[in-house]
Amino acid sequence: MPGLGQRQLIAIEMDVLDKNNKLAAHNREHFEAAGQLVLNLVSSPGSGKTTLLCETLRRLEGKRPCAVIEGDQQTSADADRIRATGVPAIQINTGKGCHLDAKMVHDACHQLPAQDGGILFIENVGNLVCPASFDLGEKYKVAILSVTEGEEKPLKYPDMFAAAQLMLINKTDLLPHVSFDVERCIENAKRVNPYIQVIQLSATTGDGMDAWLNWLATA
Ligand SMILES: Nc1nc2c(ncn2[C@@H]2O[C@H](COP(=O)(O)OP(=O)(O)OP(=O)(O)O)[C@@H](O)[C@H]2O)c(=O)[nH]1
Ligand SMILES: [Mg+2]
């Protein structure tokens, strides 16, 4: 920002994060009181978040009530894809913004049903940097990395993988066609977060979906 010194910029940034953290804590209390599991899905653009969500929602139909908040810079395309499965979804357009914040989630979640034992999935804006810093009040962040992105991503974007409880390695059906070293990827993720859990899956073929659904059942 022109005209602002480094100190002023840092002060503004800390103020923004502090306000966000307070609202996130409020969201978390609300979600816990409602008995709702809330997950923040984070990844680079195109890793397969919406495809995975649609597939997950189909499999949870009649078993667990779900709702979705979709974050994108523009369009309602992803919320439309979710609604086509019969699950309620709210689209948030962040415009120039590169991540969702706790206030956006607060306002959106009040427009969605919250049922005891249900799951609220939040698909964050595709970006491996900013969403790492913004707590939304979720129980866990789930980082999705597809095999076309390269196994070094956890080292290049460590904050995201350090903040995540679970890493989903998606698009495993493409492994025969790309040089992606799965073991190396897991090693890299564990270097930045020794406690990170890992599930390999393909949202399009359904391979590994059971492991993901089992994880959801105990999360
Ligand atoms: N081969 C393969 N393709 C996949 C898989 N999952 C998603 N895709 C494809 O990857 C592309 C992007 O998928 P999306 O679900 O839109 O990805 P996204 O992460 O929601 O993208 P943004 O919301 O734009 O960040 C689409 O062409 C999907 O069909 C998978 O498991 N295997
Ligand atoms: Mg999407």
Name a few traits of the molecule:
single chain, 219 residues, alpha/beta, binds magnesium ion
SSE layout and pairings?
Layout: H1 6-34, E1 37-43, H2 49-60, E2 66-72, H3 77-83, E3 89-93, H4 102-109, E4 119-123, E5 140-146, H5 153-156, H6 158-163, E6 166-170, H7 182-192, E7 197-200, H8 209-218
Parallel strand pairs: 1-4, 1-5, 2-3, 2-4, 5-6, 6-7
Helix pairs in contact: 1-4
The structure holds guanosine-5'-triphosphate and magnesium ion (MG).
Give a verbal description of the structure:
Helix 1 packs parallel to helix 4. With 219 residues, the protein is α/β, with parallel strands linked by helices. It has a seven-stranded parallel beta sheet, with helices on both faces. Strand 6 (166-170), helix 7 and strand 7 (197-200) form a beta-alpha-beta unit. 40% of the residues lie in helices and 18% in strands. Guanosine-5'-triphosphate binds at residues 43, 45-51, 72, 78, 126, 170-171, 173-174, 202-204.
Class by alpha and beta content: alpha/beta
Q: Tell me, what's the shape?
A: globular
**Secondary-structure element series:** HEHEHEHEEHHEHEH
What is the percentage of strand-forming residues?
15-25%
Helix content: 25-40%
Main sheet: strands, sense, barrel? 7 strands, parallel
Radius of gyration: 17 Å
Q: Kindly report how far apart the N and C termini lie.
A: 41 Å
Bound molecules: guanosine-5'-triphosphate, magnesium ion
Mean pLDDT: 96
Strand line-up of the largest beta sheet: 3-2-4-1-5-6-7
Helix count from the secondary structure assignment: 8
Total DSSP E strands: 7
